Amino acid sequence: MAWIYLTFAGLLEIVWAVAMKQSQGFTRLTPTLVMIVTMIGSFGLLALAMRSLPLGTAYTIWTGIGAVGAFVVGIMFFNELVSPMRILAAVLIVSGLVLMKMSSSS
């Protein structure tokens, strides 16, 4: 169950990061509220996952999902730069996540 919590925590991290971007510096109410609610949900699910997963594993996976997810959303919806170096960086992050999962005993 911890891995499911962690996965959803990471997905909510992507949502709150996008909502933060859309809030335009917290000047737009709806995206700001979406950000706050999803941030609380993300932290809550991360805390549940950390009941049985090691701190380093849980936090690394959580931030990795958020980082790569935000990277993909930025490219798809915000016309952010796609370059070989940025793609390589994302691939390396995902590789690190896979290795972290494989090294976890939980």
UniProtKB/TrEMBL annotation:
It is found in: Cell membrane. InterPro entries: EmrE-like (IPR037185), Small_drug/metabolite_transptr (IPR000390), Small_multidrug_res (IPR045324). It comes from the Bacteria. The keyword Cell cycle does not apply. Keywords: Cell membrane, Membrane, Transmembrane, Transmembrane helix, Transport. Its main location: membrane. The keyword Transmembrane helix applies. It is a multi-pass membrane protein. The chain crosses the membrane at residues 33-50, 57-78, 84-100. Belongs to the drug/metabolite transporter (DMT) superfamily. Small multidrug resistance (SMR) (TC 2.A.7.1) family. Gdx/SugE subfamily. This is Guanidinium exporter. It comes from Paracoccus cavernae.
